[in-house]
């Protein structure tokens, strides 16, 4: 089975977040990037598990610049066989999905996996757009994936329970927690990643559909107000008038 | 222990001087430590037991002989990678790093550098995975800072194939569970040789030492040799004389320099976080000048040590680091780590003495680290000798009569 795993970068949670250009652009200065955890822990590891039990090949793909090759090497160290980088600065989910779909069209993948979302933008759009471009079925937010011949059986969380679905390959799946367990790259993997193939492909022209008007930081956490058990009226008033949650 | 929130301080953007592979190696070691070691280390420390189940994982993250080439089962990484792995291990516990240091620098290194091809093929691949563990016998009960005075010795057995080994070694990390020991002993002419002794050889025993109030999660023992018959093929042929074991100590001390810095960074990281969370007199204690003084001095010393340590790593990669340069790094980094642990303990107030934080454990561990692999004072004399050209290790005892 040929599996394509889409990986994206995300700032390490200890990075300081700031904006430039009149708050219209994310300031990458000094930001340490990691592989988006949903892509790494769930999509990539599940792809490797499928390969280990049923054979096949795992290709990772990212849309980004040469600076993003650090996250590509990590994914290769964890166990992917080869990597593809579409050489571009992605503008939005449509741009990214179109680049990946264009590559996938000519390379015949049976299964395309993504994380359910990136932890910085939380868009959850790329998987659906790839599926639409390729006219493949999509299962989003899957927490379990089994392969039976040319059929996928998937579980996804639903209100008060689980939804179990089947789709035929080829298909696109976005992966959520539960799909697999995080793997830490071992030394053999890190050494092997040095020589695994990384192909850089120019981007195709894509119409820009999004422009960024501005970014804002979330409001700073305010100080904790302590009330005693007999101040119920005060509590209700604060929740209603100040916090505006009831 | 609390959730391990460690992130390393990097005041001078030292990460920019590391390769992507260095960072990958370091981050993998850190992730493994946080997942597998941080949750259990306190229990082992309190019970004074070595976490044997971690050996396989230590092998997988490359903690055993990271610079050993691929042909002998190692990953063939550079010296900075070795240092970074030691840093991540000691960031959690000096005992864990000690086990990896001994296996890498004191067992694998001499076999790799001075062993025969047959010895390398026999031992190194299994030592790299942790399937086989080793220890290093140099220090003796009466010969610590003066290893050249050792009395452990071997004689020709007269059968053409064996030697007979006698003597005792003390303060040996990993001894109680090691499968092999690289032992330094004098031949009949008084020349020092390395010899690989295997567990199970008759007359060889490894009693565990108890009562340590430091490095409690590390296993320490003695090596006792009573007429042990060892095949001559177990003698390391590549080098003889005191310089051979001392070159192993160079490698180990280099790892300790990185490791002790890891312990220092862990103490600082916790102290900084605590000083922003803990409030007294209605404000975080980090807003007080005396706390800021401690934190500012800590990060200054850490940053200086980071620069010194990376430079020694670069020199070692180029094969240019001298023993004296490594001594300075080991001595400096252990000293600043001890001082930072003590200051961090003060910032934590009473909480600092509990196992909720790793600070007191680091502080107790570092009392061993400041003593082993060349004491703090011996390293000072090495620097003194290096700059003056005059050794001050020995003296003639005056005639008091």
What's the CATH topology label of chain A? Rossmann fold
The largest β sheet of chain B comes out as:
4 strands, antiparallel
Mean pLDDT of chain A: 94
Largest interface: A-B, 17 and 21 residues
Kindly give the count of domains of chain A.
Answer: 1
* Widest sheet, order of strands of chain B: 2-3-7-6
Name the CATH class of chain A.
Answer: Alpha Beta
Annotation, overall tally of beta strands of chain B: 9
Give unreliable regions of chain B as ranges. none
CATH superfamily of chain A: HUPs
- The residue-averaged pLDDT of chain B reads 96
The percentage helix of chain B is: 40-55%
Shape of chain B: globular
**What is Rg of chain B?**
21 Å
**Cα-atom Rg of chain A, whole angstroms?**
21 Å
Please describe the biggest sheet of chain A, giving its number of strands, its sense, and whether it closes into a barrel: 9 strands, mixed
Percent of residues in β-strands of chain A: 25-35%
Structural class of chain A: alpha/beta
How would you describe the shape of chain A? globular
Please identify, by name, the CATH architecture of chain A: 3-Layer(aba) Sandwich
